[in-house]
Design brief:
The protein is α+β, with helices and mostly antiparallel strands. The chain contains 4 helices and 6 strands. β2 and β3 form a beta hairpin. The radius of gyration is 15 Å and the shape is globular. The chain starts with a strand and ends with a helix.
């Protein structure tokens, strides 16, 4: 699941060392609800607490060739939720690959995030698996936001 947290015209997104942006979020651990998992992900990835998870905005489904030889396809459904509130608590608690990507929370407009993601896609350098998905969701949100 992924969180969509606005502050006026800006979104809280994670920038990577490649210059792209992604929504905060990740997997659900055993025993967690979607809400509990998303609150945890905001704390870990953004250093943000007191985020209130609201209505589901939509879902995406990805199916790509698996990186593991034992599998043919990697499938993932991402659920996007409207979020409100939030307050900076302190340091991020990133997983290894997140630290390698140098993920940093940033407040940016949809136009800024879309331009950055499209530039990375066009360059072909540093294109992460999620980039097409996140760019499509940003475009979808942009078309529905006054």
């Amino acid at each position: 699941m992924r969180g969509v947290l606005f502050d006026g015209p800006r979104l809280l997104l994670l920038s990577s060392r490649h210059g792209d942006f992604k929504f905060p979020g990740g997997g659900v651990e055993a025993g967690e609800s979607f809400t509990e998992a998303l609150v945890r992900e905001f704390q870990e990835e953004c250093g943000y607490g007191d985020v209130v998870v609201g209505a589901e905005l939509g879902t995406t489904r990805e199916e790509v060739a698996a990186e593991e030889a034992a599998y043919d396809v990697f499938g993932m459904t991402s659920y996007y939720f409207a979020c409100t509130g939030g307050a900076a608590l302190g340091a991020q608690q990133l997983e290894g690959y997140e630290a390698d990507l140098q993920l940093v929370p940033q407040w940016v407009t949809m136009a800024e995030a879309l331009a950055a993601n499209r530039a990375v896609l066009a360059s072909g350098v540093g294109v992460m698996r999620w980039l097409v998905r996140e760019t499509a969701v940003l475009s979808w949100l942009d078309a529905r936001t006054p």
